[in-house]
Amino acid sequence: MTDGSPGTARRSIAPPSVLGDPARLRALADTGLDAAPDEAFDRFARLVSDLLDVPVALVSLVSADRQFFPGAVGLPEPWSERRQTPLSHSFCQHVVDIEVPMVLPDARLYPRVRDNLAIDDLGVVAYAGMPLTDLSGRVLGSLCAIDNKPRAWTAAQLRTLADLAAACSSELRLRIALDGAQEARRRVVQAHERLELLAGVSETLAGTLDVGTALRRLAATMVPLLADWCLLTLIGPNGLPREVVSVHRDPARAADVDRFGELLRTGLSPESSIRAVLRTGQPRLGSMASLADVTRGTTDPEMASIASRLGIASYLSVPVRGVGGTVLGAITLVNGGQRQQFDDRDLLTAVDIGRRAGQAVGNSSMYGEQRHVAEVLQHSMLPRLPVVAELELAARYQPAADRVEVGGDWYDAFVQPDGDVIAAIGDVAGHDIEAAATMGQLRNLVRGNAFGRPDAVGSLLSNLDGAIRGLQLPIAATATLVRICPQRAGVHEMTWSNAGHPPALVVRLGGAVEVLQGTPEPLLGLARPSPRSSHSTSLATGDTLLLYTDGLIERRDRSIDEGLAELAGRLTGTDTLPLDDLCDLLLASIQHREDDTALLAVRAR
Question: What sequence ranges are listed for the domain PPM-type phosphatase (predicted)?
Fold first, then answer.
């Protein structure tokens, strides 16, 4: 940076080190945004421009080497088309660096930015930028207002900009959740399959003394579901491997992997990761690995040669623990270069498998403390709503006031093969990680039970009851299930069934509100079977269906009926309100957030 005196040449300034923070960059990548217009963020930029009366407004996200604008108004060419600039033209990088708002009436007077090329090339003189953050508080960029002349920013303008930045941050957090939802759901399904299979193996082997059979079945279960190849090692009294079972996904590699396992019993060096796990009982993760790791960890050169043929690009190794935490052995999973690298989530899953393997090998209790993948379920809480020409959908989820984690409230919507739309909302008792895990199980059951089936929604809920009881799942929950048959023109047929959930509401075109009451029916998951009924109505163009959880209407100082009546009154006359605005209005009306709240709104077009 120059001293600002006339004639002083500008020189390159190193970007702030915080820009390269890996956790921040991962969160930025998880937004799925880039140097391309995005309607939601363009809307934020327009609001800033209109409300603050500035010629330029940006939603600016800052990477390690550039800033890009998913939302922008008023940029001059060529920047308007490019939707990005190098850091040499970035004021917003400093908002990321200082993690607080940066307000400059005249940027030319401030040493931090007076030599920034944005002043000449983009006409930035007055600047006000508010941090945009993820759920962990990491600053991803800035919502900024820019003027091409000096400007004294008023307190009211800065409050407005801060409020818009908070809303824009919420949208970024939603994008992070939505962008990862599909991957999270895939991982959840895989993890449940893995744990279910391992639990089945443990049950089959309860009481058996055939440890070799236990090891072979466990190894065969993990490949190829979890890894390309694996080594399951048990130690002897001297703490060294005495028995090794090895499996590769490719049957043609069976001889190689068997030979590797044979050599492993005597060929591990003191630097071996497996020996470290056996010695310390602590898991090891090599998200990036190579033959050099094998060479360093073995004393027999043949092992590196075999590993080259088997393939190694990442690995993890976890202890097999018996009663009291005693280390009985280790599970080592290896992936080749064609498969995704292992990460912390895989490590958590493998640690749980090691515990279960220890129970089977030790012939002890079948089931210990459950290690659900609830953290993944939390991030998959918000599904991506389907796009249906005849319907508009919007949804919101808001945790209780003093919590950020997901509880048991959930919603879902998906399109059937015949074009029908299934919408659902529910509430599992509790607000902790276990409730979130149970919620994930229930939502997956709803999808699996309903997808591709033409049954009435009452029958679908009855089948769901049966599945919960048959699988012995500890689920007690309320839910509403809706089927909508979209029509290209005219009236959409709608059926619903309610299992102890607050009644759905329909805001008719014209503003009237209809409460979809039916005969009260019990919660899901009760011990005795209970028949479920289906009810019918219709949605004409402009009608809005509202599904919600009790956090929207329940308060300690009033009854549910009073809360429902208040909600119906609040909805009266909102038929012309844009759907997203309607959802935001309803959430904003909650004065004391005592419970999580989920909303799903569907408007007929």
Answer: 388-604
What distances in angstroms separate CA 194 from CA 112, 487, 533, one per listed residue?
A: 54, 41, 36
Degrees, nearest 5: CA angle 289-219-356 = 100
Q: What is the pTM of this model?
A: 0.41
SS3 state of residue 227 = coil
What are the pLDDT digits (tens) for 514-527?
Answer: 999 888 788 988 76
The alpha carbon of 124 is separated from its chain's Cα centroid by a whole number of angstroms, namely 37
What is the rounded CA–CA span in Å between residue 593 and residue 570? 17
Q: How far apart are CA 195 and CA 213, in angstroms?
A: 18
In the numeric block, which tokens belong to residue 562?
A: 């009073």
Rounded distance, CA 12 to CA 7, Å?
A: 16
Element (H, E) at 56: strand 56-62
CA proximity to 468, closest of 438, 425, 495, 427: 438
Encode pLDDT of 208-229 as tens digits: 556 677 778 778 878 887 899 9
Q: Which residues pair with 499 in a beta bridge?
A: 479
Q: Which of 181, 182, 189 is nearest to 445 (CA)?
A: 189
Q: What is the spatial distance between Cα 291 and Cα 308, in angstroms, rounded to a whole number?
A: 7
